[in-house]
Every structure is written in C-alpha cells, then in structure tokens.
Structures
1.
Amino acid sequence: MEEDMRLFICEKLASIRYLSKAGVALDGDVAFLTASLGAWKPELPQVSFPSIPFTELLDLNSEESGFMNGMHIKMLSGGVWGDVVEHGDLKSRLKKVAADAVEIVVAVDNDRRGAYGAKQALDVIGCGKKYSVMTFSSFSENDLQNAWALRTDNLSAVDRLECLALEQTIKKHFDALWHINSAKVLKETCLFSQGVRTAPISKMEMLTLKLVQELDSSNGSFRQKDVLSLMETSNVGSCTTQAQILTNMMKRGLFEAIEDGFPSRYRLSECAKRFIGRCHPESFDLELPSKLDKWMQEQDLTSAINYIDTYFKRQLEYQRKLVLG
C-alpha cells in the first residue's frame, strides 16, 4: 500500500470512477464498495398470497446473514481501479486497509443509503480512527470538488453518520417489505401483462414508469436524458441509482428503442402499456419519495408499514377485479 493512501468508502463503482475523474481520488488511494446494502445481507421470507400484504417486522441486521459478498476493495493505479489482492476475508482486508490509511473518507450521495452501509462497515471492523464525510448531489466535477473541500471533520461527521444511519433503518425496513410484497403482487401484474419480465419491481421503477408515461404521451417518444432530468426534479432515485433504474427497466422490456436515425430515443413498449393499465392509479405515487423522507426524518416506522399495507392490498384487489371482469 502507498504511504499516503486514503480509504474512500463508497456505494458503487460509478462513485469512485467519478471521484478519480474529478481529481479527488488519486493514484494509491483505495475504495471500499458497500453495494448500498450495508454489512449484513437480510434473509427475506418468501410468502404466499394469503399473507399479502406482508407487514411483519424483520431482523435486518443479523450477523447470521454474513458479510456482504458484493462488497469489494479496489485500488487506483495509473488511473485504473483494480482489485486489492490480499489474503484473508473481506473483513480482515478492510480492517488492514483502514489501519494503513492516512484518512478515511465516507463518500456518499444525499439519499442516506450509502451512509448506512458505511456506518455498518466501520462498526464491523471496529474502526477507531477518525474519518470524514463528503456528501454530493451529482457526479459533476464541480459538485465533487466542492463536496471534497467541504467534507466534515470527525466530530460532526460521526454525529451526522449516526443520524443518517438511524434514518436509513426506516428505509431499509420499507424496502424489504416492498420487495417481499412486490415479489408476489407485482409479479402477478407482470404475468397478466404478457411480456413484462418478472422480478420484484422496485418502488423507483414504478415512479419512473409514471414519468416515462407522461413523456411518451406528450411526445410519442423520449430520450434517456429527458427521463433522468425528470427523475432528478421529482426526487426519484439518487445520482448513483438513476441510470441503473433505467437499465433495469430496459431489461424488463418496459422500453423499446426507436430506429429512426436519432440518437437514443425510446418509447413505451406495448407490454408496458398493458402493465400500466393493470395498475391502480394510486400505485404510481410520485409523492412517495417525500413521504418516505418524512418518515425517515421522524423515525416513523408505523406510517411506512401502513403505507405498504394499503398499497399492496389495494393493488392486489384491483388487478384481481380486472381478471374476474
């Protein structure tokens, strides 16, 4: 390891790529990727339709679930991020890198998910060193350089990270319950729609589908950058996740490319239109991001669970009525 090596704890590979492009991360620096999920992989139950809506509290932080295999460590050398090759498990490797680092920097966007994963990782290795936090709202060089210049010192960073981690527990419970219910209810919606590839559909995909429908209805087609702009103004996803959301929706068959000579133009697929037609209008709730943010700030798990209960009960009843005529 380099003598002046710094350790960056980030959510995804895109983050560290842009950090190096902006001149924040330098050759010899190391990045630990949390995959946004925190240190423990929760074991989510598979439920049957009689259990829908499923709203039981889950143990999402059990060490029995194990340290996330999706996490890995990379070192910047010659402008390229390569894997850090060391013996031992990921936990011991991270502990050694943290011990050797002259500075530990938690580099996360402003949706709190990365802060939660970083806090868990630091707790797992028993890191007693000082660390700082830089929070960015986009991957532009100016934003990243400003976030780097304004990174907080250890005292305020620890308090802030603790607060963000507490808020994130609400989101983590909400996302887990969404995933469990979506795996049954929205999977059935996909099957009824004939052509939408099934898998648990995320809340952000549902919101993005509504935004895309509005673009598609007014223009007959849309560009990816138009969707990303709408996602940003509607607070749908963070800068590290928006592009991935669109990729997932493309793979699911919700968009199709238009071959008209113009770059990157898309339209809603026919199966996407069928899917939308089988969803209750309130299943596309563009107020959900602000509601979830409020529940997180107020530590209001009850309201988050009640939302899940109402949402999936209503959607299941709606799509079943359409089938029965």
2.
Amino acid sequence: LVFEPFKYPKRSKERGEIWGRIAVNLNSPRSQKFTVLKRSVRDRLTLMQSKYKEKIREEERASGIDCQETQLDAALEEIAEKERAADLERNDKTSAVNKKNKSEKTSAEEVRLQVMERLSKTQKRNADLGEEKSSKYRKRSSDAVEYLKEKFQEEKELRKEEIELKRKEHQTHKQQLEMMNLIHKQNEALMDLLAKATF
C-alpha cells in the first residue's frame, strides 16, 4: 500500500522497480524473514486478490449471510480501489492525449486540404471571408516556351563551362605527368653520374 505500484501501467519498468523494492523490504532482517522475489510478491498479491473477489461473489450470491471483514480483506479492498482509481486516471490522461492528437491531426488535415484546393476555390473562400487578394494573371503558353528556351540556353552554357574546365584539368594533369617524367629521368641520369663517379 505504501509503494503504490498501481500508479504505473502493467508491465512497465517503474512498476517492476516498485515490486522489487517491496521484495527487498520483505527480505530485510528487521521484519519477519521472507525469501521472496518481486515476481513472487506480485503473483501472491494477484492470487490473494482473485481469492478475495471470488469470496465477495460467493457472499453476494448467498442471501442472508453477513461475514465479518478481516484486516486482510480491508487491505485487499483498498488495494483494488487504488488500482481502479489509477487505471481511471491513466485512461483519462490517455484519452486527453488522444483528443489532443486527434485535434492536431484534424487541423493538419484541414491545412493539407486547403493547400490542395484549386486556386479559384481558395480565392472564393477568401472572398467569402472578406479577404481579397491580388489576382494573378494567367501565364500564356508563349511565356512557358520562352522560359524553356532560357533554361535550355543556361544549361548549354553550363555544359560548355564544365567541358572547358575538364579540358583544362586534363591539360594540367598531362603537364604534371610530363614534369614528373622529366624529373624522374633527371634523377636517373644523376644517379648514373653518381654511380660512375664513385667507381
């Protein structure tokens, strides 16, 4: 009851850590000596709760029986109430997050639809809202042809520049190779002279 493992969802890391702390407390020497694991504590509580629920169902079915509630029954009832309250709280939070996500999704969908609408519909809607925007003239097909010609000319110039640049790089590379061959030949000649001079 003190640790309240029901604050966290089932099979979560936090809930497992709380069951572990409960097992450590039960294994501590200051209380009665138990040797339990977190899983055994959790399983034992689940078993006790199911037996308690079965007992309550039997008492409700049997008419006229007034059973006295023990401390264990009261504790199990309190645990069950806390678990239900925690589940309700988690469900409320989840539903709030889902509502927020849904509202964000609908607003994003609305924006997407507005973008996809045809220009005339958008202008009509804006006129209905009192927002007048400057109308744009419709481009003629000759404008499109002119644009394509300009683009083709730019690409042609760019290709010419690339070819010229590659030609210069090739020429520079060729000159470097010739220079290296010349240096190599000079080094060989120098080595031959040194070899002849030392003998």
